[in-house]
From TrEMBL:
Residues 465-628 form the Helicase C-terminal domain. Interacts with the U3 snoRNA and is associated with the 90S and 40S pre-ribosomes. This is ATP-dependent RNA helicase. Residues 12-62, 129-160, 300-332, 639-718 are annotated as: Disordered. Its EC number is 3.6.4.13. InterPro entries: DDX52/Rok1_DEADc, DEAD/DEAH_box_helicase_dom, Helicase_ATP-bd, Helicase_C-like, P-loop_NTPase. GO terms for biological process: maturation of SSU-rRNA. Residues 133-144 have a biased composition (Basic residues). The Q motif is unique to and characteristic of the DEAD box family of RNA helicases and controls ATP binding and hydrolysis. It comes from Hyphodiscus hymeniophilus. The lineage of its organism: Eukaryota, Fungi, Dikarya, Ascomycota, Pezizomycotina. Residues 27-38 have a biased composition (Polar residues). Keywords: ATP-binding, Helicase, Hydrolase, Nucleotide-binding, Nucleus, RNA-binding. It is an enzyme of class 3 (hydrolase). The keyword RNA-binding applies.
Length: 718
């Protein structure tokens, strides 16, 4: 079925590739081709990149040609689902693994080669130290910069880059079964963030080799800033799963599961995606992964025989092997079992809360804490919840890794401070360091998508423009105005998403599936509705998904052709994450359309700058730029105050619902509260209920029931 044909009501359409190398429909992310997943592979001078032994260096560009992978958004992908039986079924995958293993049986690179390869992939690694900066005498800007680099202890690092997945086994000692699982899923070439982080997290002493002149290689903490869709999930999961597999290998009782790693993510959708990825990686390893659920008890240690928990559902009943129950929440509360817990911060914090508001029950066995979308998790609104979890991890060997495509420098210093103060509190006498890994240009949108910044003048103008994207007409036969499904549409608020959905639900002709092809997802829906909408969109039953910023971060839909910012995002970071839902894993052909009206003019310069930087990275000539220089110059620069207001409340004029076309002045003002205010209100309600509950608990009375919406933080929304 040709969706576009049906959507355009049989209007003939010529699909023009936006940026694909091979032209035609194949350049669309959902149309089938995937290129090298790496975004940056500048050439290395011929004299560089040689191994000291075994001749030629196996730089990523020279790895065996990547097999073009057919992606059909409308057919659920086999390798994306968890195979029911253990073991490799695919001979080709076995052969690939074997080849990669053989390739990588080589010695390590010297520092100079490492530097060249890291540079060619635009990887920058720096060791940051929590040592307080000393006051500097005033000097020229240049001189004082140099001085700071010395005094704050930061130092460039050139660790071994991971060049093939085969090296994971041969050089970094990951379990063979994990290697097989990676091959089975078709991973061949590591992305940049995987190249830079995996050696460090798996075997820092090997990765840093002679360059490791700092003492604390054992507890490498990492802050990674890498583009959207660049494979950060795998980069943080491989080391966690591997560490658990290795520890379990030498453990006397293999049936005991300790909670060893926690992954915190801002939304339920992202958390459940991570659970799924972790399970795929752990097949056949004995590692148990589970997602946090409301009311779950956390135990530090559980015997496998006490009941099976495949992690997909909470396990009822069961007794703890050891009396290390973190929180007793009633006999019928499900017991969380496993080695890796994936959670939103509110859910876990609730599970470990104690009668004292400043204290949480410790999680002594947790050795790795991962903050995915760390900049959101450490944003003032959610900071207390995240730091509450961080500080509850009392293991002296705790390693913390922070990941995002955007990271303010305040997050860096907050992370360093937290490491430092935690160590001081636990009287750990080692230096607090973080290795910062930056891939490409920090805080920028991916270079492999096409951006369109479209002036729609008014709200009705936006609706007309969106309909135009849905119903390409003969006049726009070059398809520059059309957008091929599947695509995502972002609005500023929940009411606007709902209103937009009801505006458009009959825009898809019945013969193309009708209103069932357009859906809406937001945090006011129940958990089951949310996961139902997600799976329908993932397997291609829904073509257009209208949503809020709840889906702007981390969520990975493999074959999305486009993103429409129906409402201008609240910040530059939000733009980067929203548009990063397309063009994943280096795929070409994604389109990001942003509508703006006269109300948005004070705020769009930021977005225009991000687009310009992204296009510059992509090597576009000034003539090809989608934002002309005159527009960049003409747009007003928002003040700090304006930016702050926008981030907190969104565009003022849009804080209600969607203005109904043709209704004149009678606007459909559905709500006057911004998402931020609603969250604050919810958090406040939650805090009041929480303190009431603690009071009751302290007095031995029955606690008041915590309602779902109070007990759980839904993450960023609106
Ligand atoms: N080495 C690889 N080769 C090919 N595909 C990969 C590789 N690593 C990851 N991927 C795929 O890339 C996609 C994006 O990965 P992932 O969701 O981890 O990105 P991310 O960096 O976390 O993005 P975001 O910043 O949006 O959260 C996934 O579909 C994943 O399977």
């Amino acid at each position: 079925m040709d969706i576009l044909k049906l959507l355009s009501r049989s209007t003939k359409q010529k699909i023009k590739a936006s940026s694909g190398k091979d032209g035609g429909t194949s350049a669309l992310p959902s149309a089938g081709t995937t290129t090298n997943p790496q975004l940056y592979h500048d050439t290395i001078p011929a004299s560089r990149g040689k191994k000291r032994k075994h001749g030629e260096v196996q730089v990523a560009d020279e790895t065996p040609a990547q097999v073009e992978e057919e992606i059909d958004f409308f057919v659920s992908k086999l390798t994306n689902s968890i195979p029911k039986k253990k073991g490799l079924k695919n001979d080709a995958a076995r052969v690939t693994t074997k080849i990669s293993r053989d390739i990588s049986k080589q010695t390590l690179l010297d520092e100079d080669d490492c530097r060249q390869i890291l540079r060619s992939h635009r990887l920058k690694l720096t060791l940051l130290s929590a040592n307080k900066k000393e006051k500097k005498p005033k000097k020229s800007k240049k001189a004082s910069k140099k001085l700071e680099a010395k005094k704050d202890g930061s130092k460039p690092l050139y660790p071994q880059p991971l060049q093939t997945f085969g090296e994971l086994e041969s050089t970094y000692g990951i379990a063979g079964r994990m290697g097989d699982n990676l091959a089975q899923q078709g991973y061949k070439i590591p992305t940049e963030v995987q190249m830079g982080s995996l050696p460090l997290l798996l075997r820092p002493e090997t990765a840093l080799g002679a360059s490791a002149d700092f003492g604390q290689v054992a507890d490498v903490n990492l802050l990674a800033v890498a583009p959207t869709g660049s494979g950060k999930t795998l980069a943080f999961l491989i080391p966690i799963v591997n560490a658990i597999v290795q520890r379990r290998r030498i453990s006397e009782d293999k049936k005991i599961h300790e909670l060893e790693a926690i992954v915190v993510a801002p939304t339920k959708e992202l958390a459940s995606q991570i659970v799924n990825e972790a399970k795929k990686l752990s097949i056949g390893t004995g590692v148990k992964v589970f997602g946090m659920r409301k009311g779950m008890r956390i135990t530090a240690r559980v015997d496998e025989e006490e009941g099976e928990d495949d992690g997909s559902s909470a396990n009822e009943g069961g007794e703890e092997k050891e009396q290390q129950v973190v929180k007793q929440k009633g006999a019928e509360a499900p017991l969380a079992r496993g080695d890796i817990l994936v959670t939103t911060p509110g859910l876990l914090l609730n599970a470990i809360s104690t009668p004292s508001p400043d204290e949480h029950t410790p999680l002594p066995n947790v050795k790795t804490l991962v903050l995915d979308e760390a900049d959101v998790l450490l944003d003032p609104l959610f900071r207390d919840q995240t730091l509450g979890i961080w500080n509850s991890c009392t293991n002296p060997e705790l390693r913390v890794t922070l990941w995002s495509a955007t990271m303010g420098s305040n997050i860096e210093s907050l992370a360093l401070e937290t490491l430092h103060s935690r160590k001081a509190r636990l009287e750990i006498d080692t230096e607090s360091t973080i290795i910062r890994l930056i891939v490409g240009l920090k805080d920028s949108a991916i270079p492999n998508i096409t951006h369109r910044l479209t002036y729609a003048a008014t709200e009705p103008g936006k609706l007309i423009a969106l309909r135009q994207l849905l119903h390409p007409t003969a006049k726009t036969a070059d398809s520059t105005e059309s957008l091929r499904p599947p695509f995502l549409v972002f609005t500023q608020t929940i009411p606007r998403a709902i209103a937009l959905h009801s505006e458009l639900r009959y825009d898809i002709p019945a013969e193309a599936g009708g209103s069932s092809r357009i859906e809406v997802l937001h945090s006011d829906l129940s958990d089951s509705e949310r996961s139902h909408v997600m799976s329908r969109f993932r397997n291609g039953e829904t073509w257009v998904l209208i949503t809020t910023d709840i889906l702007s971060r981390g969520v990975d839909f493999r074959g999305i052709n486009g993103v429409v910012n129906y409402d201008v995002p609240n910040s530059g970071a939000s733009y980067i994450h929203r548009v990063g839902r397309t063009g994943r894993a280096g795929r070409d052909g994604g389109v990001a359309v942003t509508f703006y009206t006269k109300e948005d003019i004070p705020y769009v310069k930021n977005i225009a700058n991000i687009i310009a930087a992204s296009e510059k990275q992509a090597g576009k000539e000034p003539g090809e730029a989608s934002v002309q220089k005159w527009l960049l110059d003409a747009l007003p620069k928002p003040s700090k105050e304006q930016k702050k207001k926008l981030k907190m409340h969104g565009v003022e004029a849009r804080r209600g619902g969607l203005e109904k076309v043709g209704e004149g002045k009678g606007k459909a003002q559905i709500s006057t509260k911004s998402g931020y205010e609603r969250k604050l209100e919810n958090n406040r309600k939650g805090a009041i209920l929480g303190s009431k509950r603690r009071k009751f608990a302290a007095e031995g009375e029955e606690k008041p029931e915590l309602r779902a919406e109070d007990s759980e933080w839904d993450g960023i929304d609106e």
